[in-house]
From TrEMBL, chain A:
One of its GO terms (molecular function) is L-allo-threonine aldolase activity. This is L-allo-threonine aldolase. The lineage of its organism: Eukaryota, Metazoa, Porifera, Demospongiae, Heteroscleromorpha. Its cofactor is pyridoxal 5'-phosphate. Gene3D superfamilies: Aspartate Aminotransferase, domain 1 (3.90.1150.10), Type I PLP-dependent aspartate aminotransferase-like (Major domain) (3.40.640.10). It comes from Geodia barretti (Barrett's horny sponge). Residues 1-272 form the Aromatic amino acid beta-eliminating lyase/threonine aldolase domain.
UniProtKB/TrEMBL annotation, chain B:
One of its GO terms (molecular function) is L-allo-threonine aldolase activity. This is Probable low-specificity L-threonine aldolase 1. PANTHER family: L-THREONINE ALDOLASE, L-THREONINE ALDOLASE-RELATED. One of its GO terms (cellular component) is cytosol. Belongs to the threonine aldolase family. Gene3D superfamilies: Aspartate Aminotransferase, domain 1, Type I PLP-dependent aspartate aminotransferase-like (Major domain).
Amino acid sequence: MRRAMAAAEVGDDVFGEDPTINALQERAAGLMGQEAGLLTASGTMSNLIAALAWCSRGDEMIMGQEAHMFWNESAGPTALAGAQIRLVPNDVNGRISAQDVAAAVRDSSNIHVPATTLVCLENTHNRCSGGVMTPQDTREVVDVAHAAGAAVHLDGARIFNAAVALEVPASELTKDVDDVSFCLSKALSCPVGSVLCGSEEFIGKARKWRKMVGGGMRQAGVLAAAGLVALDSMVERLADDHANARRLAAGLANIDGLTVDEDGIQTNIVIFEVDREKVGDAREVIAALREDGVLVSHSRDQALRMVTHRHITAGDVDEALSRVNGTVRRMAGAA
Amino acid sequence: MEVSNGEEGMSMVVMGRYGVLYTKPRPKSAETSPRVIDMRSDTVTRPTEEMRVAMFEAEVGDDVFGEDPTVAELEKKAAELLGKEAGLFVASGTMGNLAAMMSHCWSRGEEVLAGDQSHVVLFEQGGAAQIGNFFLRTVRNLPDGTLDLEELRSKLQPEGKVAGDPHKTMTRLIVVENTHNMMGGRVIRPEYMDRLAELIRGLGIRIHVDGARLFNAATALGLPPAELVKHADSVTICLSKGLSAPAGSVLVGTAHFISRARRVRKSLGGGMRQVGVLAAPGIIALEKMSQRLEIDHNMAKFLGRGLVSMSDLGVDLDLEAVETNIVFFGLQRSDMTAEDFVARLEKEGVANGDRVIVKMLPARVASGEVKVRAVLNHHVTHQGVECALIRIREILANRGGRKRKQET
């Protein structure tokens, strides 16, 4: 990747003249079953652009109550795109149902009521342990959204994890939505960026919004070059991350004071609960683990999150489990 | 590694710390493609070989967790160079300006005053209003790029004065652009900034400098860049223009301001991860490429002198106004608009025996006239300017057009 970046042929992308970016965008669109693509600085930027493109001020967008767009994007879709967010339930795998979406759609012929112009999906689902939506699940929600006159945006930050887990081409999961974004910088391991894909018309508008929010980079082919390498060589190996996540979950389940839903571990994210009485407060556990050389993040309340990726081997998983066990036993002894 | 001011298509074996990185092949024949002399902007600059090696070797980490040492180094260096406490790498100057304005105008009911020909007003899609939700009012830009201070004085609405007035927004920020793009790459002098600072003293109003081309200004004046922005509360500088890094800008200000701007940047989608790969060439841009800008200024004057010699062909240019790397000229021709001229110039031609394509852009200026803009950058050499002048003369002379009669 570094070699590709250093040698990349570049041009000014604001003039549309960076050949490496153009190649990546075309390749990405093809993989997503869409017409065109747009390199963005981050998944957050892609999500914001989708909100800006599909929603007018005062519209309403529907998404799951655990959505990244709701929890972790500094209220951008609302504050900056001016649209209200309407939440529907996520199941344990992060899916939202067509029925719940249908029930949440608004009738804006009434002057009191905002129009529902966007439904947002997330696949895999971050806060729901990296759970997957199948092509069937996706199609059902898309049909309901389109019947209601709303577009569908897919936050596919980790869409390739879903595709690998389900053993389907990614396009099966993405071709029916109106736009989809996937991240290059996560498990695909590129330094920076995401690619937003949709129709030519949508991408034309998205390019303008991207410039407005400050995402119009110049010779960013240096970033796109890494993306092309990733699409070639970093997708199939995601299966290893999933295997390591299952290994991790199985080990955590055996540690007294921790609970994890092993069946819910479908990709590379493991969320587990720490018993407050037996062990301690989640934040203290995180700090103690850090001291013991295991870095994890906080999901919510007593839930902690671990994510596997190319720097974590099976051996690292076993080592981590051993250290976690030690930390938990120590804290349980002191609790 | 030498800083490359270089020609395209050279055979090069690039060595880094880890050995051979890559080779760039020389094209089979120098005649396979025409030479492109691209003066549309200094944003077209491609990274130097040294920058490419730096990208390859960059130490990186997740910058959203604050763990990328290279971008941290860039931000610190930029802040020090500009005499401010802290810095923030951003994807573009537009993002830097927007994040700055949003961070200054933190409360509802605040406004920004900026020049009517400034980039934030003309070329940022009104992000201030659309995204930032604050008012952006204009003050006339004078030909020298400054804001008309008398008009500014009359338009100021300091909070102390208007807080009780339900009709008026509260002026929180003034944006000064240095160098000023649309007024011709004009340099804003420290003496002007002193007068501006005096005008707003004690009124709770701050200054943001859009210093996309600040280093051009510093070079032209022979002053350290910090001197030009000592009254500014925040500054955006672009790494991707004349400084030639592939992408990005840096916003600098107080530590408190930057921590706020970091939040705003994340909400705009500018939170990038292993962005050290962009910061590494950025450091070279800041430290080395900032030292070569005088060459671009000399090339601009060389171009300007050549254009002035074509005034009999309808070229209208004030050479005194060429202070940095930007040249605007008018075409007083009845047979050809600026757009026609630029289109014709972009067609392949021959100069000094070489096939060349010369690129510039038409630009509508304050008076409504459409002029031609040329921006010098490290890819445009003395020879390149010579060829451009030959092509320009050829096009203007060919049509046999007369100078348009001056309207009275």
